[in-house]
Amino acid sequence: MHKFYEDTILNYINYMSKQFRDYTFYGFMKTEETIGCVINGNPVVAVHISSYEKSELESDDDVVTEQKMIDEGFLFVAVIYGIDNCSYMKRFKSKQLAVDWMYNTEFYETTDDCLFYNS
Hints:
Elements: H1 8-17, E1 23-31, E2 37-39, E3 42-50, H2 63-71, E4 76-81, E5 87-92, H3 95-104, E6 107-108, E7 114-117
Parallel strand pairs: 1-6
Antiparallel strand pairs: 1-3, 2-3, 3-4, 4-5, 5-7
């Protein structure tokens, strides 16, 4: 259970960050209303990036695709955390590529290179 605050935004941050160990919270990204939590009228997802290489499977949706990505050297994970049971992950070859993606993406849309993340 996360610490409760009267400020809704702080509660969203705590709720969306509580389950991640070995990940760093990098911020929010605007998204579609169907997958994001609404903060100040904007649907957003929280983005967490792994602190070190993750060679084990993180997604339980498409293990074949994810294993292929791991085998190809995509070892850093960005978790795009939305509302319950509607989160995604994306793998990168370096942490810097993941961070660059986070800061250069204005609006998150699910794409073929994203895997479902059971949140």
